[in-house]
Amino acid sequence: MNYLIIGTGGVGGSIAGFLALAGKEVTCIARGKHLENIRNYGLHLKSDLKGEHYLKVNACTAEEYQGKADVIFVCVKGYSIDSVKEVIERASAPHTLVIPILNVYGTGPRIGRLTPEVTVLDGCIYIVGFVSGEGEITQMGSIFRLVFGARPEQGVSQERIEAIAEDVRNCGIKVDVSDDINRDTFIKWAFISAMACTGAYHDVPMGEVQHEGEVRDTFIGLSRESAEIGHKMGISYPEDPVSYNLKVIDKLDPHSTASMQKDLARGHASEIQGMLFDMIDLGERLGISMPTYQKVAQKFKNK
Known about the structure:
This protein is α/β, with parallel strands linked by helices. It contains eleven helices and eleven strands.
């Protein structure tokens, strides 16, 4: 099975690194000095789970890629979705499965509408991973969990999805094949939204969320409000969503921060629209009171 990773940032680079370490055929789409360093020196993976490695992987720009992939992981930021249409269409054969791994909600259907001839599943990931230098990816902590699946109307066989899952599991990544990918991507969106908004609002790493106080109260408030949205949408939670979010946050490396928080701090383009304002818009459409989200929005309304 050969893999194409579109977006070799913290998420895509970590997936690529683990695949390459296991001897899988993987190509990374990157650009600029990041791409140049991967080509010249290999993908530099610094992983709490796998150690430090320089990995020779195929790397190119989206325009340069000419092959056909069995599996395409889309790991760009939410604001870059429209830019991946052409490379997905060019890299896909009839058997190709595309798996978006983004923080924002609804990306599988959105990319599917852009590329109607391609089978686009949906997915999400739990990981702390970031670009720590040109050509260098850091995977922090013990959590590396990938969740993906097909929507019922797509008619994709479980065997095809399970074959990919097993191949990726063999690389040391925990993989869950979802029986309700809409539920699971919403749960991830709600978690990362609360995490990113709390960290950015208080300008703190996740260690500050892991003990009682104002910062944790913000995280709990955001989690409660997104949980109300989920209930209104008919999301069937396997466990209490606020308790689940707290359980996940408490397992993170105390020094970790969300990518949105890093991007805001550096003055870069960020996913604040998808993480904060889209959640508020959805809550307002559903008639849900969102005082904690509105508090955070006051700080970032001009960002």
